[in-house]
Amino acid sequence: MKKIALAMLFAGVSMMAADGKALSAKCVACHGASFEKVALGKSAVVKGQSAAAIEAALKGYKAGTLNKAGMGALMKGQVAAMSDADIKAIASYVAGIK
Question: Has this prediction a pTM greater than 0.70?
Answer without folding.
Answer: yes
